[in-house]
Each structure stands twice: as structure tokens, then as C-alpha cells.
Amino acid sequence: MNLVYADEQGNLFDHPDWLALGRSGDMIIELMEDELIPLPEGATLVGLPHTRPIGIHAASGEMRPLPGDVQAVGALLPQGFTRLCIPSYMKTDKTQKLPLFGYSAVVWKDDGFYVAAHKSDDPERWNPLNCDTDELNLQVERLLSKYPDNRLYKHLSNCALGYECLTASNTFLQRWEGAVPVSFSCNAGCFGCISEQPDDSGFPAPQTRMNFKPTVDEIVDIMLEHLRTPEAIISFGQGCEGEPSTQAKIIIDAMRRVRDQTQLGFININTNAGLTDHIRGIVDAGLNLMRVSTISALDDHYNAYYKPRGYNLKNVEKSLRYAADKGVYTSINYLIFPGVTDREEEMEAMIGFIKRTGLKFIQMRNLNIDPESYLELIPKPQGEIYGMKQMLDIFAEELPDVVIGSYTHVPPMPVK
């Protein structure tokens, strides 16, 4: 397993004299053969700025940084793949923070790139190569012409064409899961928010948050255009917005109007579920699917990352339980990080949380974050660290009726 590195121009190389390593939390670890899979289609290899890779020099057996003007390399995995290790590196400038991406360890072996990852879902629908650019441009033009005054379509056209957001692209291609963002405000201050960061955070937000409140008419236009087949999913709560349930009234009004006209497809909300009263109203208006974002079922870890305003984990749990009891197909958007999610205390707390809420589905999502900043923010480990591969096995064993995947699906069971 040769170490992979990049030069200052971004060219990639493997070094036959250096053995690749990985990282779990702040520990440098050996990569196991059974953790490695060929680099998935749709993955991207990137240099980690202001870093140098750490490996084992084969001749001496010494673990140290690779010399020279080089960078560590990580893989950005497409949906459907859960990373098992992050790249092994040291920072050359500790004041610099890595951009908000989910970096996975990558090596060169058997004449190809391999990554430390597990295939947790079918990656086909979220493979960027399945988004035809020419067709997308045509459909964007068609819907912008059909709805020239709809600000949401204009906003989503930038998400699709500028940021290459696949959910926004689906909205124009009228397939699978589409997006309908509604909120410019949030009741959390997530440390790794990808749409809004304080000026002094050191993290440049990779995309821009919407800055207007859509009308019910604008929302209904998009929902009715998308919900044309039984398998269609339209989702509130996107990376380009705040917390959708802060706009519960317009969501409820839009849902009721849409369901007066069609029963096709599924209405989903991606939410932190902290505003329990608002979630109850949305559920009662006819919600089909709910995906709740969480990073932990431990209060101190959850609060450190989300910085919730006016709610706590108990509210999140109540929202999930209410939705499940009303027949909504519930899942969590579980933000995972090697060396943290696989801690003994984290696993015990999350398994208990899932059992109490009647959750149906765990979406394993690689946390986009600068590792050092995240590890400094959260509590130190209290128990054993099991490794991500074993963690997935434990979840499967302890939660046999819960699906483990990567993204929102049409549910395999009837919903209300």
C-alpha cells in the first residue's frame, strides 16, 4: 500500500518506498486490507493544503512525514460510501483550517487507487456522472421560462449549475429526490455549517444561504412539478438554507394545497427537529418522510457542535417519536467521523436513542470538517474506540430492524 501525495501543482504521485497510513481521531493507525475498496466512480482526489503526509519509510521502518514540498491527499467520496479512516498527515501551518469536506484515506495498490471506505448504499443515483449537463441546462431553461417570477427556481438554478448540487439538479430533471428550500434562518449555530459561517470562523462556507422568504405559491409550483410519479420525493431542508421548520406556517400551507391536488410521491423534511411544536404541525399536515440531522446522542457532544438555540436533544427525541407514532418514515442524517462515532460511549448512547425513537433508517454521512478543529471542540473519549468497520457491524447486530444506508429512499413500507 504505497503512500499517495501531491506536489505543489496538484499532480498526484505514489511513493514506492513509503507505506501509507490512516488516521482515526488524532491517532495515526495502520490501514487494514479488508478496509480498502477501489476508488469509487464519482469520487474526487484532492490535496490537503498546508499539510504533509505521514507514512512509514519502508527501509527504516520509521513513521514520519514525507520530506519535500508535498501535500497529503484525501478522497471525497460520493453518496453511498462510508469512510473508515481519514488521511494521515501533519499540518505545516497549524493556524490554517482545511476546507469543509469529508476527507478519506487513499492509497495506491495493485496499480490503482484504493480508499478506506465501506459501501453502505447503492451509489448509482448520486453518482455525479449520471447528471447530464446538457439535459440539465435545457430543463433549467425550460422551468425558468415557465415560472419567470418564481424566485425559488432562480435560486435553485444557481445551486444546480453553480454548485453542482445533485438534489437541486433533480428538481429540474424532475427525478428522484428534489429540493425545495424555504428558510433563511436557523435555530442552531452548527460548527460545520456549509451555508453560513461567522467571519472569524476560519471556515469559508462552500455555498451561499438563501436570503429571502419564499411564498406559498412559489413552494407549491416546485412541489407540484416534482410530485408527478409515485416514487418522487420533494424535500424541505437543503444545504443552502437554515432550519426549514422555522418556516412551519408556509410549509404547512403549501403541503395542504399540494395534497388537495395530488397524492403522488413523498414529502420529506430534513431538519434538526428541535422545534417540536412546529414539527408536530408539519407532521399533521401530511408529512411522509423525516430525516433528522444529528452528530451524537450525548448532550455535551451534540451541544458543542450544534449550539442549539432554545431546544435540546430531548426535543429532538420527542419530535422523532411523535413522527414515528403518526406513521412517518423516520431516519437520521448521522454525521460520522472516524475515531469519534466509533467510541464506546457514543455507540451506546446512539443505539439507545434509536431504540427509544422507533427510528427506521440510519443515513451514514461523512462529516465535512477540519479534523483538528472538530476534535478540539468535542469531549475527549471516555471508553474504547472500536474502529468504524466494527461500529457498523455492532449497529447492524444491535438494530436488526433498522436499515443502514446513506441517503433518503422511497420507504419499503406503507407510510401515512
UniProtKB/TrEMBL annotation:
Q: Which UniProt keywords apply?
A: 4Fe-4S, Iron, Iron-sulfur, Metal-binding, S-adenosyl-L-methionine
This protein's source sits in the domain of life called Bacteria
Cofactors named for this entry: [4Fe-4S] cluster
Task: Please list the residue ranges annotated as the Radical SAM core domain.
Answer: 181-347
One Pfam family here:
Radical_SAM
Q: Which InterPro entries does the annotation name?
A: Aldolase_TIM (IPR013785), Organic_radical-activating (IPR034457), rSAM (IPR007197), rSAM_sf (IPR058240)
CDD domains cross-referenced by the UniProt entry: Radical_SAM
UniProt-recorded name of the protein: Radical SAM protein
**Species this chain originates from:** Paenibacillus sepulcri
